[in-house]
Amino acid sequence: MYICVINNIGETVFHKNMECSRDNLELVTNTFGKDIVVGVECIFTWYWVADFCAENGIEFALGHAYYMKSIHGGKTKSDKIDSEKIANMLRGASF
């Protein structure tokens, strides 16, 4: 899973490809606190992330890349690029 954390002034403070596991997600949320939003591009395995967020009081957002114009309309697509675009969309930034 690609994880991108952007702070409230728009700086990318963490951007890394990690093994997709509950332990890694917990490590990131413990590092950056519970006052975050976890956004996931809709794939068949998103349920466990939503459950993790619900159990830990973390806001969760699910989106489909096709409907996220800034991702779908881009010329280059990769998990790394998508994770940063999703983080910025959740922050309310425009492209």
UniProtKB/TrEMBL annotation:
One Gene Ontology molecular-function label: DNA binding
An individual GO BP term: DNA transposition
Domain Transposase IS110-like N-terminal: 3-91
Pfam family, one: DEDD_Tnp_IS110
Superkingdom per UniProt: Bacteria
The protein's name in its UniProt record: Transposase
Organism this protein belongs to: Treponema porcinum
